[in-house]
Amino acid sequence: MKIGIIGAGQLGQMLGYAAKSLNLECIFLDPSENSPACDVGEVLHYKFDDLDGIKQLFSLTDVITYEFENVPVRSIKILDPNYVYPGTMALEIAQDRLKEKKLFELLGIPIAKYKEINSHSDLLHAASQLDYPFILKTRRLGYDGKGQILIEKEDDIDNAWIKMQDQLLIAEKKVNFDYEISAIGARNVSGETVFYPLTQNTHKNGILRTSRTSLENPSITKKAFSFHSKLMSKLDYVGVLALELFIKGNKVIANEFAPRVHNSGHWTIEGSKTSQFENHLRAILNLKLGNTSSKEYVAMENLIGSIPSKIKQLNKDFFIHDYGKKERPDRKLGHVSVIGKTQTEREKKLKVIQEILFNEAAN
């Protein structure tokens, strides 16, 4: 069985490793000559909007998936929908924040107040409707904190408009949340669904830094999984989907969803009986989904911009993943996962990593 994967970054790489454990072969499509997934399978070097390249990938494989949500929808629509997962509806909605908000509203999933922005006057009106602070975001192609400006007072409006007026925009009330979580689940072709333990996430400058399997809160867990289930059912979704949520008291507020395996689920490689990557492959092949139970207390720390030598020297209690990418500011180069028998043991191991990263940054 051959799996076609559009994109050959670190997510594709990890899907490739999971495929090997299932005795599956992966073929990737990616324009980069030095993509991380080169070490786990053949890479067809075409741009993502090259329809001839997409067709070639389809001709060589039994089923196609993708590792990021900005794949051109047109590239997917030319293929037989019975062999491409997740489907185009999920992809198209995830690419546009306005469509995403409207879907959440349709499903009764709580969200922050928002306004569509098509003009400077729309932005002024949004300020009176949303009140300060609020965030001006691009509707498309925003990730890791990119494509958004925080507007804290009236004087910020003109400058924000000058910077972003040439793009489709949305204004969104800033949520003063207590913490952020992600709900990660998988659904196969037959409709079987599984969920991973909720993950609590910490970001810095819009980039995910730390993920921890959270202590179970039955009320929040029930709401999060209910929202996730509604989303997958409405989209007739197949594969792994991550739903990012804000928690304020006992309120659960949706931020966005990703129709793919997700950075906040990397801990599942060592910390769960079945990783999110294996379950994604199981889902698109309509195999029985694997056990998602976590092993004790798990956490993951992203390695951003550089990987200090001291990280590479850590012992076997630290699960180090180097994606093989060139160093660059704010670039995700790898991650380290840790497992503790207690929450205290997990935090102690996590502190070792964070202190190395802090000292490296200080120097």
Task: Quickly name the level 1 CATH class of the largest domain.
Answer: Alpha Beta
CATH superfamily heading of the largest domain? ATP-grasp fold, B domain
Uncertain segments: none
Helix proportion: 25-40%
Annotated CATH architecture of the largest domain: 2-Layer Sandwich
User: Radius of gyration from the CA trace?
Assistant: 20 Å
Q: Count of helical segments? A: 12
Give an overview of the whole structure.
- The protein is of the alpha+beta class and 363 residues long.
- It folds into three domains: 2-84, Rossmann fold, CATH 3.40.50; 113-173, Dna Ligase, domain 1; 179-362, D-amino Acid Aminotransferase, Chain A, domain 1 (2-Layer Sandwich).
- It is 33% helix and 27% strand.
- The chain contains twelve helices and 17 strands.
- The protein has helices at 10-21, 51-60, 73-77, 88-94, 97-106, 120-130, 156-164, 218-235, 268-271, 276-284, 309-312, 343-362; strands at 2-6, 25-29, 42-44, 63-66, 114-117, 134-138, 148-151, 169-173, 179-187, 193-195, 199-204, 207-213, 239-248, 251-258, 297-304, 319-322, 332-340.
- Strands 9, 10, 11, 12, 13, 14, 15, 16 and 17 form a nine-stranded antiparallel sheet that branches.
- Helix 1 links the parallel strand 1 and strand 2.
- The protein is globular and about 55 Å long.
- The relative contact order is 0.12.
- The model has no long low-confidence stretch (mean pLDDT 94).
